[in-house]
Amino acid sequence: MSEPYEYWLLDLDGTLVDVEWDYVRDVFDTVGDRLDRPFTDAEAETLWHGLTGSRNRQLDAWNVDPERFWTTFHDVEDPQTRAESTYLYDDAAFVAGLDEPVGLVTHCQSFLTEPILDHLDIRDWFDAVCCCTDETGWKPDPEPVEGVITDLDVETTEGTGVLAGDGACDVGAAWNAGLDAIHVDRHGPHQRGHCVRGDYRVDSFDELDLP
């Protein structure tokens, strides 16, 4: 990687951290029981990681009401249990060594994100955090990204910043906000059914050859 970025923005779930499968399976089993609609392993993984893009579009395609699903899903999730089931990717450790301002832009809700940051002891990695809501907007919209850039109080000229994430929505949010995009492909196009392309496309941050 040759670009000396002046600030970094990162996604959380699937990019820096992930969750043990047993927890994911238990959550979807309980949600499925409450909705009277079981979810297969493949369906659970697809929704958890957003492999097909918009989760709401995917739910609609399965004839599952998105609003009812998410209300049930968030009611089922236990923040502390999820935090204790969350692990840090080995290659994510580079973030701790960044001298530049670092922001976090995640679709993971605040009541889940906060315990994860505390449990993994990575809160001090980030100078600004945005847990997306309907008010902030959702990636790939640029609004939550632009909000974090404002909080970081950094220059926004072309080529000064980068956003790294594991989904197409992260790449879209980066480009829509005028940033470079790093796609960290933790699953591969064979699982997604399509290829996500960014300015950089890697399987691990180790491939970036950061100083």
Automatic annotation (TrEMBL):
The opening ranks of the lineage are: Archaea, Methanobacteriati, Methanobacteriota, Stenosarchaea group, Halobacteria
* PANTHER family in alphabetical order: PHOSPHOGLYCOLATE PHOSPHATASE
Q: Which UniProt keywords apply?
A: Hydrolase
State what protein this is by name: HAD family hydrolase
Q: What is its EC number?
A: 3.-.-.-
Give GO terms: molecular function aspect only.
hydrolase activity
Q: Which InterPro entries match?
A: HAD-like_hydrolase_sf, HAD-like_sf, HAD_2, HAD_sf
Supply the source organism for this entry.
Halovivax cerinus
Query: Which domain of life does the UniProt lineage start with?
Result: Archaea
Name any one Pfam family assigned in the record: HAD_2
